[in-house]
């Protein structure tokens, strides 16, 4: 029986520890007082655990290194994950866009189930211990060094410490600098699934206003185009919301080269001519009252104020009408950057997939060292994809040690 150390008590680490413990002695090392600290806050605490798309379609929602994940996602699918929890008494529900949540909308039941299973299979957990280095001899892992200077020997090590996002939960990304000095290839780190900052001051007045099913498009690196629909939320710094977060993962790397112009269609199911008719539908009402059948009044009021248009529809010039229509159907805003990585949901970058055997999750640089979860340079959109990636890579690493 081999001795296996798992570093990190997130979803990837807990799953790998559970699976590995069936044939090995397993020690899980967690820097917090509890496991699953980041998992607890995912999905606003509701835990969007996976997505029910077919795996072929699932892979299309992974925007960075999807081919690397073929083995892990087919070895432990979204159906396998749900069956794992259902066998332990957890019920689930499917919501919009095939997102899967626990029936009771609580992430703590997922964490408790994983904790109970670790107890059941004999995983030993060392809390409030931080990895400061790994022990490598002749390109082979021999153990780890902790912050109290203690050395824990091991035959195999699984690193599942997460990326750089939400460092207060423990995933501060320091592991990457440790691994780099041992020869691992670390790709450049960027915030991903992160709110976007805009230059236009007037949109700060829209803070707190949310809009549904907005079409957002952009041109970025070498005239690449991206377009997607979803909900947005205006904030004091710019914009957030699901479609903004997803879009950020495409353009984040290119914002260092300058601003990127985003185009907004706030009513993609309504044509320009239909908007014109709605504007002039009732000449006795204000324009924003006419428009309230397609847009919130608090949004159109601020938009008309920005356009400096304050009149009834029958006094509206053709030029002013065109301005309103263009602002609703083709508003252009200049994105100047993202919020910090501390506010991003996931990290873009990490251990290069070229350094990992995708069929086992073992490092190609250091023998008997394995990786799972967001410590690797893999990245999905919002909707349960990143959690499934964590569980699947954790499972594959666990059965491979």
From TrEMBL:
<dbReference type="InterPro" id="IPR023166">
    <property type="entry name" value="BaiN-like_dom_sf"/>
</dbReference>
<dbReference type="InterPro" id="IPR036188">
    <property type="entry name" value="FAD/NAD-bd_sf"/>
</dbReference>
<dbReference type="Pfam" id="PF03486">
    <property type="entry name" value="HI0933_like"/>
</dbReference>
<keyword id="KW-0285">Flavoprotein</keyword>
<dbReference type="InterPro" id="IPR057661">
    <property type="entry name" value="RsdA/BaiN/AoA(So)_Rossmann"/>
</dbReference>
<dbReference type="Pfam" id="PF22780">
    <property type="entry name" value="HI0933_like_1st"/>
</dbReference>
<feature type="domain" description="RsdA/BaiN/AoA(So)-like Rossmann fold-like">
    <location>
        <begin position="3"/>
        <end position="398"/>
    </location>
</feature>
<dbReference type="InterPro" id="IPR004792">
    <property type="entry name" value="BaiN-like"/>
</dbReference>
<protein>
    <submittedName>
        <fullName>NAD(P)/FAD-dependent oxidoreductase</fullName>
    </submittedName>
</protein>
<keyword id="KW-0274">FAD</keyword>
<dbReference type="InterPro" id="IPR055178">
    <property type="entry name" value="RsdA/BaiN/AoA(So)-like_dom"/>
</dbReference>
<feature type="domain" description="RsdA/BaiN/AoA(So)-like insert">
    <location>
        <begin position="190"/>
        <end position="346"/>
    </location>
</feature>
